[in-house]
Amino acid sequence: MKFPLGQEIYKRTPVYLINLKELISWFRLERFNGVLVEEVSNVNTQVLVYDGIIPKAFTERNGEILAEDSNAIEIFVNDYLARNGFLSLFSYDKELIPPLLILYFSTPNIFREESYLFIPERLIEESKKENSISHILIENSEDKVHFLFYDGKFKGYYSEKDGIIKEDISFLSELFNKSDSFISFYQISCGEFHKLNIPSLKFSFIEEEITKWVEKLLEYVNFIMRYYESHGMYIENTNKILDGLNILCSSLVCLDNKFIIKKEIMGSYEEVEGEIVEVIRRINRELSDLWGEKFVHQKYIQGYKKFIEEYKNDKKIIELLDRINPENIEF
After folding, report:
1. Could you report the per-residue pLDDT of 253-264, keeping only the tens digit for each?
2. Suppose 72 and one of 59, 103, 159, 212 were both cysteines; which one would form an S-S bond, judging by CB atoms 3.0 to 4.6 Å apart?
3. Are strands 110-114 and 144-150 parallel, antiparallel or unpaired?
4. Are residues 100 and 86 located together in one domain of the fold?
């Protein structure tokens, strides 16, 4: 295992039982920290999740790396769509991940030097400095063992053979005494870590779909707004319509009375659907205070029918509107 296993959420669950779209949305919404593992025969793909984003992924066979990052995720998705294999999910203490990441995104202080040249106690002392993130990697002919430190605190070590996180730091000295051991040492400050160019990998079309889906629903919301305006019905401050919404408040902005996506949507389908419906309700309630509920309801139904007529050949948006049933939205 390139990454440690962490606390088990579920293990070796058949992929056809997992809704991957919802799982990815949940990662984003909950700012999840951990690793998602897909196993197909003797091949496994490990996807690291940090604060809801995916910075690193590997596909391995018997310890040999077959693919990394976007290529590894493509293998993951293809196997998932083929309904092959099993999924396991493990959570981490968030502080465990920065020392994992500096192995891939920072420059080593020491790289594959023979371990007998160094004093393990000195390395531990250096790693325990406050405001520092450190990673000690010991390699030998049998295994690779990673020792992780965050803000000077020892977070545990794991072997790539079994991936189990352990806390006995004295094991470092034992490894130093092996004749064929090599050491690499990575260390940066906590401030430097936040300046690293860490990517946010995507689950290809599976993850892109939710943004396209929201864009389609916003076509409807913006159409209704324009229809109201064509009848002289305006809302003074449309951005306040988004106030208090858990997901859309930070993901959308209204410019020239048009809602647009300003940053990645981080939520599940059901939650975003509910908030889109709430946006429509708020628009209608705001106008009802000025024009009366009966008049606004009349114009809303007219606008809805006009939209259906104009977009009747767009099967995707008609399907989405059917799910939220906007004709029956109460004020």
Report:
1. 888 888 998 877
2. 59
3. unpaired
4. no
